[in-house]
Amino acid sequence: ALNGFVLVVTSEGLIFYSSHTIQDYLGFHQVDVMHQSVFELIHTEDQEEFRRNLRWALNPPHAPEGEPSAEGGKSLSSSAVTYKPDQLPPENSSFLERSFVCRFRCLLDNSSGFLALNLQGRLKFLHGQNKRSEDGSALPPQLALFAISTPLQPPSILQIRTKNMIFRTKHKLDFTPLACDAKGKIVLGYTEAELRMCGTGYQFVHAADMLYCAENHVRMMKTGESGLTVFRLLTKENRWKWVQANARLVYKNGKPEYIIVTQRPLVDEEGGEHLRKRSMHLPFTFATGEALLYQSAYPIPGFPDPFQSKGKTSKSKKTSHSHGGRSQKDGVDPSSLLGAVMQQDKAVY
Question: Would you give the distance in Å from CA 84 to the centre of its chain?
Fold first, then answer.
């Protein structure tokens, strides 16, 4: 019911808890942020402000110049202060109240990649941590920030209306589905187990949209974001559902780790209009489209010898193949686009 999400951050800067609604505002799944350093999510210019608000004394000794902010949790734990309960003001003290603004990384469709959040709450004792000091003695419970995080700008009526339809999916780097939120399960009809069962996820995409999606997939691997992509997804009822999607890479320790896709269902008329616009100009250059997506040593029945290159996905390198005898006839790479089409039931077309 909140216009925001709940966040609990320990004195070391670890996210102890986040409500699942963090996904509606930042695009990160709840389980992907819990027990991670909060500084991986915060704009570098705002990290010191967040550090100050984690300490009960608002004028702590300044962190040394040039402290590596990318280290996040490590650089914080070295400066985290362990307090004895008698050093702290009583828990109902106004000294422990907090209200400040920080920019958080945001995977949703906004231009800057960050969302300014107002964090309002207080420092409270976080019990049950069972932490021990270096000499092995038990440490008393330490203060943690308990806050409600709300966007600085209230959402527009249009955003509120369309938010009810938007769903998100999580994928491996080759687009294999890993997770889907509750709204996605309603729109598509699959359970998470059914989505993860087979293939790279392209088997849920309409054959006429596969190259277009793969081209934007390649763009996302290069730039971090796919841009708006309109295509058809196969539902559990064997019907095609038009969606408008934007995919973003999520990095961990500087390396891409997984993909989050935000998807909005469209009515058939909108999808058809996008398809007409797409077919008016050729979306693929030979260098990045068909040549890369279909390269393989498999001969395809019905294709003359010089065009015996079909089957691999967009990440395949150029493969040398002889035009002499017919090479292996034992099937198609199931992770290729052609393999994805062949997994589909002909009846759905």
Answer: 39
